[in-house]
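Posted in: Structural Biology > Protein-Ligand Complexes

Title: Requesting predicted complex, zinc ion in pocket

I'd be grateful if someone could produce the 3D structure tokens for the following input. Sequence and ligand are given below.
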Amino acid sequence: MKLATTAKRALGEALGQAKQRSTRQREHVFAVLLDKRDHPTADEVYARARTTMPTISLATVYNCLETLVSCGLVRQVNIEREPSRYCPNLREHAHFHDLRSGRVLDIDVPTDLITGLKRLLPAGYEAEHIELSFRGKAPTSKA
Ligand SMILES: [Zn+2]
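-- Reply #1 --
Done. Output follows.
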């Protein structure tokens, strides 16, 4: 799987700032995440990554995911009692966990709403990040 030039640049910059270098495996795992933005688990990323890089190991995939999360390119999404999922969408957004299908969807959150939520904090508190998640049922598709 090939990484688009802009994504490759973003990866190189983010890794560089974290004093890490870009490797073929990191590029590959990032490309897998960008290719299908359905919040896969590490096991799912591993299965996808192997189709075009059969030599990659699960441990390497875990390490790559950890690096991508630590350098801020990917968000780790935790849902109660479920394995972590990974999301390359860096805009402020909420997640909708569809209890029927198990899917996790991105829900855009307007900036003014985020600003409003941050105003709820007592004086002196500063939020670096807000995690918003919904649990419920998405409409069943008629397709
Ligand atoms: Zn997401």
